[in-house]
Amino acid sequence: MAEGLLVIFILASHLFVSGVLSGSILTIENKCDQTIWPVIFSWQSNLSTSGFALRAGEARALQAPSSWYDLILARTLCSTDTTGNFSCATGDCQSGNVKCLWSYGWSAVTYVYFRIGDGGVNSYTISVEYGYNLPLTVIPSHSSEQCRVKHSSGSETCFAAGCMVDLNKTCPNDLDLFTGGKQIGCISSCLKYGTREICCSHDFKSKQKCKPTMYTRNFERDCPLAYSYLFNDNNSTLTCPDSTDFVVTFCPSSVPNITSEEHNKNSMAPLAGPKHNSLRKFKPILGSAALAVFIIIIVVIVVMVKAKNARKK
């Protein structure tokens, strides 16, 4: 019995320790002049939340699972009506609630797609494939080594990127989204018109036949590192070391040059502001605590086994 407990406790402790020490920290911060409601739509493993409110100037840090695919976007101009139904002017996930269901109907939003622990690396892609509602940046950082991964070509593949330009100002008139006379976003031509050629579907679903349109070229010109249409081959997927942490900022003021030595030194600095809840500074503490718990459990089980053997003698 004691030997069986020993095996169970060792496995449980290993899972506990590895769960604390592995995975990346995703920090979502709001530098907009309005409240936003981030959405986290997950594949494989889910986080503790799928949607929440983030007031102007606030940030929230989340611990990602060690293997995780997810999409992060922000809803805007949200409200609850007299019947209790929650909805948003952009990015609405049609759940009727602040938290989203595990499905999402595409709308005109800027989003970032993360692949955490995918083949030993982390990667992310910023996309305006379905439209645009807010500017955003992603800043990667790594605590144990420089945040630089060399591609086989020799180019760096881990650096800050974003879509900083207000695409609402350059949005074609027929793709503008308005509410109450105010422009709130720019819808993609695929969502607007839905033709096979524009959406690269059916007969056009191949790299040879799927071509950029005047609409996608507008997005590509202003946000060259953002994915803008199916089969878009602009190296928009950036790859970083496994366990790299990321800061996703909505309405950023600038994009830092992460390829410089200076940014590699500064990228680990915690975000300013009393409302920022960063998990990064607690990660070593949690890891040490988990290791201590693991050792105590092993000692207790060993004592139990020895006591049982002594009684048998």
Automatic annotation (TrEMBL):
UniProtKB keywords: Disulfide bond, Membrane, Signal, Transmembrane, Transmembrane helix
SUPFAM superfamilies: Osmotin, thaumatin-like protein
Highest taxon listed in the record's lineage: Eukaryota
GTP-binding in keyword set: no
Transmembrane parts of this sequence: 285-305
Pfam annotation, one family: Thaumatin
Signal peptide (residue range): 1-22
Cysteine disulfide partners in this protein: 32-251, 78-88, 93-100, 158-240, 163-223, 171-186, 190-199, 200-210
PANTHER family for the chain: OS03G0233200 PROTEIN
Descriptive protein name: Thaumatin-like protein
Species this protein is from: Eutrema salsugineum (Saltwater cress)
